[in-house]
Design goal:
Blueprint: E1 2-10, E2 13-21, H1 29-46, E3 52-54, H2 62-66, E4 73-74, E5 77-78, H3 79-85, E6 87-89, H4 103-107, H5 111-114, E7 118-123, E8 126-128, H6 135-148, H7 151-156, E9 162-164, H8 177-191, H9 199-209
Parallel strand pairs: 3-9
Antiparallel strand pairs: 1-2, 4-5, 6-7, 7-8
Helix pairs in contact: 6-8
Length: 213
């Protein structure tokens, strides 16, 4: 058995709940998809009206695969490269050269471990704070969705009401594309589209609509 969260909208807030489900070990996509189905079945057992969407390369839905951070690009760069290259530490950063290396190499760059405490994120001459948590990741993810998906594909997100990411373990990390997808659904419900919020407007919206981690 394993536990993973699903993200959903409750009282105009992005909320989450942990579900216990049978985990199918192994690295094959088919095994991951069995785990996804097991997780979705657990959600349906508590909410018969649930329509969950797995957001990862392991999704059986084309939209879920399109929304994977590995498929999204922002200004020609992968989200992983942008996220790692934007980190500002006590003793270094941002390391913009990480935009031009393979994503896994960017994530493992030794400077990210040897430059002291993380202080902020800096992207396109804008500085993003560490609090609220996940705000920078959510910002670049949504901007990448705007560039990578059509308006109809973006609106299709709102036809689902639970979002999962089988690879996300909240005990090990805080950022997940599933949470951001729920935020996108909330925005579509409110605005009918993804609004063009500047940095400060987005941070304020995030504070008001994301349940504290």
């Amino acid at each position: 058995m394993a536990k993973r969260p699903a993200f959903f909208i409750h009282q105009e807030m992005v909320s989450s709940k942990l579900y216990s489900f049978e985990w199918f070990s192994g690295f094959a996509v088919s095994q991951k998809q069995k785990s996804v189905q097991s997780l979705h079945d657990a959600i349906l057992n508590t909410d018969a009206s649930a329509n969950p969407l797995e957001i990862s390369t392991k999704s059986k839905e084309a939209l879920g695969i399109q929304l994977s951070a590995f498929h999204l690009k922002l200004n020609g760069s992968t989200l992983e490269n942008i996220f790692q290259s934007a980190k500002v530490f006590e003793h270094g950063g941002p390391y913009l050269d990480l935009l031009d290396v393979p994503p896994k190499e960017a994530k493992r760059d030794e400077r990210l471990k040897q430059s002291g405490k993380l202080k902020a994120f800096q992207y396109l001459n804008q500085t993003f704070p560490l609090i609220p948590q996940t705000v920078f990741y959510d910002y670049i993810y949504i901007e990448a969705v705007k560039q990578s998906l059509t308006p109809d594909e973006i609106r299709a997100i709102s036809t689902y009401n639970y979002f999962t990411d089988i690879e996300f373990n909240p005990a090990k990390s805080i950022n997940t594309q599933a949470r951001t997808a729920a935020l996108i659904q909330l925005m579509i419900n409110e605005f009918g589209r993804l609004p063009d919020l500047d940095k400060n407007e987005f941070i304020q919206y995030h504070k008001e609509h994301i349940q504290a981690l």
